[in-house]
Write a structure and sequence with these properties.
heteropentamer; A mainly alpha; B mainly alpha; C mainly alpha; D mainly alpha; E mainly alpha; A: mainly alpha; two-stranded antiparallel ribbon; 76% helix; 2% strand; D: mainly alpha; 79% helix; elongated
Chain lengths: 609, 508, 164, 99, 477
């Protein structure tokens, strides 16, 4: 097996090996830190491998039969190595590694078995994510798609005895599953139409226009639903904020950098199919933009630092989707990568803060910049990147997206995204000003975290800057939008920052009044209630689903089964009645005989003819 | 003379039962060892058969035949093809697990194991017998011991007589284990009446005085006969397969039955029903099958959704699992009804997958019950800390049942979906997919309720699984994951059997 | 209308009348006497059918034997009871309906049967023929009948013999 | 007179006997009913024998008559013993055994 | 061979039986009034055993006595059945106080033997008169035996009911026979079979009326009403015997009268038989449901079984006859066994209620197991005789296309299993009220064991018996 196959395979297998080792060898797992060592080591090697694969620019496609059938296998698994997957490999392994190292310190006071469990899940996740990235076919992608969902479920529920965490985990699973129904249905339909799950085969058909299936639009839409669930697009975005119940490093890894971007990755991966259905693409664009705006608006009123970041993640995913919808898959993928880096940075930074302060509520923080300068610096770097200021990574990718959307002349989505730029800058700096520069009323003496957490922070900060510079030098590859675009977006971002400064630092504007003034007041009201979506889902679940199920349960127990019991009861009663003819009187018995004779005589007359 | 492997597999447990009955009086350990050994023999042999089965040649292999009643053409005729192969494997997997899972049965364990093993002989017999008559004989043998097993070692839940038929409930004493046992036994025997009529109808119409499957396979029965006989088989076996609305024996029965019995019954015997429909119905009556596929499939869809919703409504852990079986049997029947290669493979694979997963479930429920003496979901909570092993196993089982990839459940469901959309009734895909979602809801809800959240105040000093119980859990989980990751282990032989079967129904 | 026909009608009338009396009279004694009458009438019917031997048997065995036994029985039970046995009937109407229905049922077949009006000439003496038959082909049967009678006697004895 | 006349006569007697069996309360009375029924049999047999000029019927009659006697004997014995233990011969008062 | 030798050869069993009866009679007279009459019982039992064994040496011979009496396969098959069953019955009653060693033991055994003689002749009778006499010889002792415990009010009551219903039925039967004779002009069954073709209305009437007599004897609904009362009141070993042998005799006679030589016309009886079978199965099973007395329960279940045999009769084919014969054998063992277990329990507990079975499995597991086997056999469960029996009759019926009948029968088997399982439940599931094992007299135990052996052997290896049954049934058509 040539290196271009086995090296990626190795990258994939290492975390899996770590997982199996930890899962099966209970003592090792229960040892906690040693388990962590195993997992981290595996990831480190995997990262090295990934870097090689990426820098060498491997390209290969290998498949093995998975589900046999009469005429050739029905489904295959394998490796699909190309620039897209290579970049993802690096991102995934890198962030995973950093997060795992970070967690070592972040979770240092967990019980060893729990810690072991944590790293077992982590390894499983890394494996699943890599498998997803390398998937050559829809089936494999779906398989790992679900597995990452599982890991997210398990890791959100890491502190399973916290009710909030438990329900958040379940909620996340259910809602993403809802999207996955569409996904699986879509790929099954596609299979039955084309007879294959493999991307290459499908792309080939797409090339020679052999994919003119009726209802391709529907199929692609269903597939897109999967992305909607996974990448927290409106209206299935509600699970992501709740997912913050998990440990912060998990949020950084799964719910910011990697898993949630799987949807975007998928859309990018099967771009050739999506381009065949422009309507769906447009829909993706619109939904993406709307999601971005919606999430941003909710982020503005959120007081929980992690939730703010979560909403910003949703918002940024909206960007990516919008770009993908606009056909600018390059831009969306670029943003995926950069966002992965700086959002991980932000989350880990937030983690450090929470670790130090012991609360998520930004209003209970303040003056942290002085207390923990290093964290402050890296957090601000991340914030700037997210706000989209040059020369940081975020700027270029976001500008590329805006350009792409503009050129696809999706005017309204463009405007929404532009507004989102402003809001993004605003809510991020709102956090910065309140948490880091606000009046200090934190109990105890928060201080910078140990190096195991600081190291990853600095590394990611450095990357954010480096990638930004690299893109600047490299002319950010591809295409620019119209000349006015860059200044425009910078201006918007600065506007947001200024407003935040004026409101939360300078006190020139009273946030309450700002929120009170008319058009905003309603928005504020709605945003604080998450636009009632959670309530809606909750109502549907409790009222409709559980209610209906209770009805069905009753019907089954008391009607369907009731009829059966009725029958048997009647049989018993019937026997009781019938034995009454056994009156005990001899003459009645003779009557029996007489009736018998009659019956026979009549019956005989009857059947004789 | 070649070793009669299938006979050995089938009768080894029975010998075990006799040994237990007559040698192991008052020696509980001996009882368990005999049980473990004899079932182990069956398991090893069936594994060997599985490996040694010639997939190129396909068809029925390891053939045995002894004439029983020549004038009637009844003969003891055994053989396995790809489908029965998997079923035999499943049976041995479950019974091994069952023997270990019920290691702690205290009262009258001698009789318990004896009956259990007798039951297993029946199950093996059904899967390997090629003579319809002997098939029926084993079928009855597989049903009957259930009565005593449930009646003696079962557990009594409580069902309030309500609704318009309340008086009937009082008459029949719903909820008690005796009721459940009686209901299950009689219901299944009621079904067997239809099967019997069907078998005789085939025998008579075939004219060739023989009950042999192989002989009847060749006969092309007139369409009319095919229809009604298929219907008879469908009702008869369908009752065992838990088709709606003839499924109500299953929740009560499985809920009341002792662990190993629930495992065996939900895990294997319900499959036996589906197997019957596929082997007898579709195998012998192609036209009938084709004509009535719509019915089978539609009712299967009802099963899937209805079962899942009912499961969601339950507050008794065992009932949840029991109804999930109803739902999954729906998927099995649906796959078969699609009359497509994917669907039928999926159906057979689902039989296996669900067999193992539900066996696992019942083993776990049994353990939980044994430790908490409660089945009330809403009294439980936070068991994850006290019994992590059980929690993990339960999660795996749950994930498999909601069709999570890398567990056997996924492959089965994927294939079923594929079949459904390729079938003549595309809409079947919808309820099937919906079913998986509903499953996700109730399974995770239950798992969360029991194992997550703060520890429940009702229970104290709980403990995790012990010694032999681990064997059952680990074994089943391993099988579940193994077949989930490498489905071809099972599907390769199955495919050799399903393709010819289908080609007879829908043409090549 | 021939003499034989007249005779038949008379005898039939007698027979039916006495039979009805048997089943209707409230007094058991009378019932038995009417039975005797009915049996004699039957014997007369046998005569009409030219089998005097059976007429004799009928008279001896039935009108003699049976009736005597019955009377004995009644005397016995009566002595025990100590008052004359009167017997009521139950559900006369139902009984009548059912009995009538049965008769209709039988008649339904009778009317379908081909009629045979003429009597074939008799071979010599039927009595002799009977004797031959009894000790010819039916000898074994006769033996069996003997056993039957013995057994019946034994049974009756077992019951009738007083407590010991 | 034709055969059917006799057969009908027998049928009537038979029906009357049945009526007696059905309606009599007293066990002895019922016995008398049975006697009538058997009597009808004899009429039949003799009639057939005559109209077929065949002796078997007459032999048959002899047998039925004797069997009847035996039956009556046993029956009356039962009645008597019944009377001893139950102090009654009313057949429809006997319902220790029922259901 | 000379005719005389033929006669003796054909009558050997009957003559032997007569000898035994005489011996019993003689010994009974010499035993002093107050003496122990066990020897009488032993002689009778032993004699029957010898005859039973001898019957397996008897070979078919030509018809004798002018074709009235035939010793063909069917007759021999039936006689083996009667003798074996009688042996088991007498064996079981040996240990019974009154019938075994009481003062009336002589009468008891003489009556049983007389009735048995009737059956033996009945099985061979090919002449209406002989048939009727044999039938009565079989019946009349039964009336007496039913009320044998003349001090027991129930017994006498049962006896009277049995007698009344019985003699009415036999009156109807005689009436029917008179028409048969009239229609065919002969008392030879062969003639009847020939005449059966030209559906002579009187012949039809006659055969139907005759059917009543048989229906009473085999206790088909609605002629069954004497059965529960008689079974409940009479002594159990006798009932065990009564519940199988006369019925078997009745069926054999049915075959002789309605099928032998009738050929295709036999099918004419299918509607009546099927109708009666349905009625009997349904009524028997339903009425058994609420029974609390084990003997009554078995009585009704027995009625249901007659229904199943009628299913085989309805097939009106050689296969049908053969399968009924097989069913009869299976029924002999299963039903007698069940009754004998009831007897054993009743001796110990003094109760014949099903409640007496509570927890039997813990008290004397083997007895419980035996009972379970009998119940399963009656219920038609694999690996015991009853399973094959039911399946075979169903098979015979299905062969004639009577699927609906098979379905009815099979479905009602479920109802039957309900009450059988209730007894099983009492034995195995419910806790015992009393402890200590149930004492079973040796002879009774032996009888039970014989039944168990029969049930199991037939259940595991039915082949030889089926073949034999088919062989003897074939010549009928």
């Amino acid at each position: 097996m040539s290196v271009i196959v086995w090296l990626p395979l190795l990258v994939l297998v290492l975390p899996f090996a770590a997982f199996v080792l930890l899962a099966v060898v209970a003592p090792l797992r229960r040892a906690g830190r040693r388990a962590a060592g195993v997992s981290i080591a595996a990831m480190a090697v995997a990262l090295a491998g990934a870097l090689v694969v990426w820098s060498e620019g491997f390209r290969s496609l290998t498949t093995w039969a998975w589900i046999p059938a009469d005429g050739g296998p029905m489904a295959t698994v394998g490796l699909f190595v190309d620039p897209l997957s290579n970049a993802m490999l690096v991102l995934v392994t890198l962030v995973s590694l950093l997060v795992q190292i970070y967690s070592l310190a972040y979770l240092h006071d967990e019980r060893p078995p729990a810690l072991g469990r944590y790293y077992t899940y982590q390894s499983l996740f890394a494996f699943s994510m890599l498998g997803l990235v390398l998937a050559p076919s829809f089936v494999q992608m779906f398989i790992f798609w679900e597995l990452v969902g599982l890991c997210s479920y398990l890791l959100i529920g890491y502190w399973y005895d916290r009710p909030a965490a438990a329900s958040a985990a379940v909620k996340a699973f259910w809602i993403t599953k809802l999207g996955d129904l569409g996904f699986i249905a879509g790929i099954v339909m596609l299979w039955s139409a084309t007879g294959t799950f493999e991307f290459q085969a499908l792309f080939a058909k797409a090339q020679e226009h052999a994919l003119a299936i009726d209802g391709l639009g529907t199929i692609m839409f269903l597939i897109y639903l999967g992305a909607v669930g996974k990448s927290a697009q409106f209206p299935l975005h509600v699970w992501l904020p709740d997912a913050m119940e998990g440990p912060t490093p998990v949020s950084a890894l799964i719910h910011a950098a990697t898993m949630v971007t799987a949807g975007v990755f998928m859309v990018a991966r099967v771009q050739p199919l999506f381009v065949l259905v422009p309507d769906v693409l447009a829909l993706i664009g619109w939904v993406g933009a709307f999601t971005a705006l919606l999430a941003a608006s909710m982020a503005c009123v959120e007081g929980d630092i992690k939730r703010v970041l979560a909403y910003s993640t949703v918002s940024q995913l909206g960007y990516m989707m919008a770009a993908a919808g606009a056909g600018a898959s390059y831009a969306s993928f670029l943003h995926l990568l950069t966002h992965g880096v700086f959002k991980a940075l932000l989350f880990l930074g937030a983690g450090a803060v929470i670790h130090a302060v012991g609360t998520n509520d930004i209003f209970r923080m303040g003056g942290l910049f002085r207390a923990m300068p290093q964290t402050g610096v890296v957090f601000i770097v991340g914030t700037l990147a997210l706000a989209g200021l040059p020369p940081l990574a975020g700027f270029f990718s976001k500008e590329a997206i805006l350009a792409g959307v503009w050129e696809a002349d999706l005017t309204w989505p463009f405007l929404m995204l532009a507004l989102t730029v402003f809001l993004t800058a605003f809510y991020m700096f709102r956090v910065v000003f309140i948490a880091f520069f606000g009046r200090a009323h934190a109990a105890g003496h928060p201080h910078d975290p140990p190096w195991a957490m600081r190291g990853p922070l600095w590394l990611l900060a450095g990357l954010t800057v480096f990638v930004g510079l690299r893109l600047w030098m490299g002319g950010s590859g591809g295409h620019h939008g119209p000349g006015w675009l860059a200044p425009f977006s910078i201006a918007l971002a600065l506007g947001g920052i200024v407003l935040a400064w004026a409101t939360y630092r300078r006190g020139a504007v009273d946030p309450a009044r700002l929120a009170g003034s008319f058009p905003l007041s309603t928005l504020d009201f709605l945003a604080r209630r998450r636009y009632g979506l959670d309530a809606l889902y909750g109502g549907l679940y409790r009222g409709f689903l559980l209610g209906f199920s209770r009805l069905v349960g009753w019907v089954d127990r008391y009607l369907v089964d009731g009829l059966l019991n009725l029958l048997s009861a009647c049989t018993l009663r019937g026997g009781d009645l019938l034995r009454r003819i056994q009156s005990g009187r001899a003459q009645d018995y003779v009557y029996g005989v007489a009736f018998g004779v009659l019956f026979l005589l009549v019956w005989a007359q009857w059947w004789k003819r | 003379m070649r070793l009669p492997v299938l006979s050995l597999i089938t009768w080894a447990p029975f010998v075990g039962a006799l040994l237990i009955m007559f040698t192991a009086r008052h020696r509980p350990l001996a009882v368990r060892l005999i049980a473990a050994v004899t079932t182990g023999i069956s398991a090893i042999l069936s594994l060997w058969v599985y490996v040694a089965y010639d997939r190129e040649a396909a068809g029925f292999q390891f053939y045995e035949k002894v004439a029983l009643v020549p004038p009637l053409g009844i003969s003891y005729e055994l053989g396995v093809d790809g489908i029965s192969l998997l079923m035999v494997l499943l049976t041995s997997v479950i019974i091994i697990a069952g023997v270990f899972a019920s290691w702690t049965v205290a009262v009258r364990s001698q009789e318990f194991y004896a009956l259990l093993l007798a039951l297993v002989t029946g199950v093996f017999g059904v899967f390997v017998s090629l003579d319809l008559f002997v098939f029926f004989l084993f079928y009855e043998l597989a049903v009957l011991p259930m009565y005593l097993l449930i009646g003696i070692w079962g557990s009594t839940g409580e069902v309030r007589p309500r609704g318009i038929f309340a008086w009937a409930y009082r008459e029949t004493g719903v909820g008690t284990k005796e009721y459940a046992a009686m209901k299950l036994t009689l219901y299944l025997l009621f079904g067997s009446a239809f099967i019997l009529v069907g078998i005789f109808a085939l025998y008579v119409n075939a004219g060739a005085s023989s009950f042999s499957f192989l002989d009847l396979e060749g006969v092309g029965f007139p369409p009319g006969v095919q229809r009604w006989v298929f219907l008879a088989f469908y009702v008869g076996f369908g009752i065992l397969a838990g088709i709606w609305p003839l499924h109500t024996w299953s929740p009560d029965g499985h809920a009341s039955a002792p662990t190993a019995v629930s495992m065996l019954h939900a895990g294997v015997l319900m499959k036996l029903g589906a197997y019957g429909v596929v082997r007898m119905g579709m195998g012998l009556l192609p036209e009938g099958a084709q004509a009535l596929a719509w019915l089978v499939g539609t009712i299967a869809c009802i099963n899937v959704v209805y079962g899942a919703l009912s499961a969601m409504a339950q507050t008794d852990l065992k009932y949840v699992i029991a109804y999930s079986s109803v739902s999954h049997m729906g998927l099995v029947m649906l796959g078969a009804a699609t009359l497509t290669e994917a669907g039928l493979n999926g159906s057979v694979f689902q039989m296996f997958a669900h067999g193992v997963m539900t066996g696992l479930f019942f083993a776990l429920v049994g353990l939980v019950y044994e430790k908490t003496h409660s089945r009330e979901i809403f009294k439980m909570g936070g068991f994850g800390r006290a019994m992590p092993g059980i929690a993990t196993a339960f999660t795996v089982g749950g994930l498999s049942s909601l069709g999570l990839p890398a567990t056997a459940g996924f492959v089965a469901e994927l294939l079923t979906f594929m079949g459904a959309w390729r079938s003549d009734h595309r809409w079947w895909l919808l309820p099937a997919v919906a079913g998986t979602f509903l499953t996700a809801i109730y399974v995770l809800r239950v798992a969360k309720r029991i194992f997550w959240g703060p520890p429940s105040p009702h229970f104290h000093d709980l403990e995790d699984a012990r010694g032999p119980e681990w064997v059952a859990l680990v074994f089943l989980v391993a099988v579940l994951v193994l077949f989930g990751m490498a489905p071809s282990i099972a599907l390769a032989p199955v495919d050799t059997a399903t393709v010819p079967l289908l080609s007879r129904i829908v043409g090549p | 209308m021939s003499l034989e026909a007249v005779m038949f009608w008379v005898v039939a009338a007698l027979l039916l009348a006495s039979s009805l009396a048997v089943v209707l009279t409230p007094n058991l004694f009378h019932a038995v006497l009417y039975l005797a009458a009915a049996l004699v009438a039957t014997g007369a019917v046998f005569l009409l059918l030219d089998s005097p031997f059976l007429f004799a048997v009928q008279l001896l065995l039935y009108a003699g034997g049976v009736v005597t036994i019955v009377v004995f029985a009644i005397m016995l039970t009566e002595r025990l009871v100590g008052e004359r046995i009167t017997q009521a009937s139950r559900w006369v109407v139902n009984g009548a309906i059912v009995a009538a229905a049965v008769f209709v049922g039988i008649a339904g077949f009778l009317i379908q049967a081909p009629r045979s009006e003429t009597r074939p000439a008799l071979a010599a003496d039927s009595t002799l023929a009977i004797g031959r038959a009894l000790f010819g082909p039916w000898a074994g049967t006769l033996e069996l009948l003997a056993v039957l009678l013995v057994v019946a006697l034994l049974g009756a004895l077992h019951f009738a013999r007083p407590e010991d | 007179m034709g055969l059917h006349a006799y057969l009908t006569l027998a049928a009537l007697v038979f029906a009357i006997g049945l009526f007696g069996v059905l309606t009599r309360r007293n066990a002895v009375g019922i016995l008398l009913g049975i006697e009538l029924m058997l009597n009808a049999v004899n009429i039949n047999l003799v009639a057939f024998a005559r109209f077929r000029a065949d002796v078997a019927g007459l032999v048959f009659t002899l047998f039925t008559i004797s069997i009847t006697v035996a039956e009556v004997a046993v029956g009356l014995a039962i009645v008597i013993v019944l009377f001893r233990v139950r102090r009654t011969v009313e057949a429809d008062r006997l319902d220790l055994l029922r259901g | 061979m000379t005719p005389a030798a033929d006669l003796v050869g054909a009558l050997v069993l009957e003559l032997g039986l007569g000898a035994v009866a005489l011996l019993v009679f003689a010994v009974n007279t010499v035993v002093p009034r107050s003496g122990d009459r066990r020897v009488v019982a032993w002689i009778a039992t032993g004699g029957v055993l010898v005859l039973a064994l001898a019957s397996f040496l008897v070979r078919p011979g030509p018809a004798v006595a002018g074709g009235m009496f035939v010793q063909d396969g069917l007759a021999i098959f039936a006689k083996r059945l009667f003798l074996s069953a009688t042996f088991i019955g007498l064996l079981a009653s040996l240990s019974a106080p009154e019938t075994g060693r009481g003062r009336r033991a002589g009468e008891y055994h003489l009556l049983v033997l007389a009735s048995l003689l009737g059956m033996l002749v009945l099985a061979s009778a090919r002449d209406l008169i002989l048939l009727f006499v044999a039938f009565e010889l079989m019946s009349i002792p039964l009336y007496v035996l039913a009320g044998f415990f003349k001090r027991r009010a129930e017994a006498v009551e049962a006896s009277l009911k049995f007698f009344l219903v019985g003699s009415v039925s036999s009156a109807v039967m005689a009436y029917g026979l008179s028409f048969v004779y009239g229609a065919t002009g002969s008392t030879a069954l062969a003639k009847v079979a020939q005449a059966a073709g030209n559906g002579h209305p009187l012949l039809l009437l006659g055969l139907i009326a005759t059917f009543v007599g048989f229906a009473f004897k085999i206790a088909a609904f609605p002629f069954h009403m004497w059965v529960p009362d008689t079974y409940e009141a009479a002594s159990t070993p006798f009932v065990a015997w009564l519940s199988v042998t006369p019925k078997a005799a009745g069926f054999v006679a049915l075959f002789r009268v309605y099928f032998e030589g009738a050929g295709d016309h036999a099918a004419a009886w299918t509607p009546i038989a099927a109708a009666l079978a349905t009625l009997t199965i349904v009524a028997g099973n339903l009425m058994a449901l609420p029974q609390q007395n084990a003997k009554r329960l078995l009585a009704y279940s027995g009625i249901a079984h007659i229904g199943y045999m009628l299913v085989g009769f309805a097939a009106a084919s050689a296969a049908g006859v053969a399968m009924v014969l097989f069913y009869l054998v299976a029924y002999v063992f299963g039903n007698m066994g069940a009754f004998l277990v009831v007897e054993a329990l009743a001796r110990a507990e003094g109760s014949e209620a099903t409640a007496a079975f509570r927890g039997l499995a813990q008290r004397s597991p083997l007895l419980a197991l035996a009972m379970l086997l009998f119940l399963l056999s009656l219920g038609g469960i694999p690996f015991v005789a009853g399973f094959w029996a039911k399946l075979f009759v169903f098979w015979a019926a299905a062969e004639r296309g009577l699927y609906w009948l098979v379905l009815v029968g099979a479905v009602l088997t479920v109802v039957a299993l309900f009450y059988y399982l209730v007894v099983a439940k009492r034995m195995y599931i419910e806790p015992p009220e009393r402890t200590g094992r149930v004492p079973v007299p040796a002879t009774l135990a032996l009888a039970v064991i014989l039944c168990v052996v029969g049930v199991v052997v037939l259940g595991v290896y039915p082949k030889p018996l089926v073949m034999a049954a088919l062989r003897v049934a074939a010549p009928l058509f």
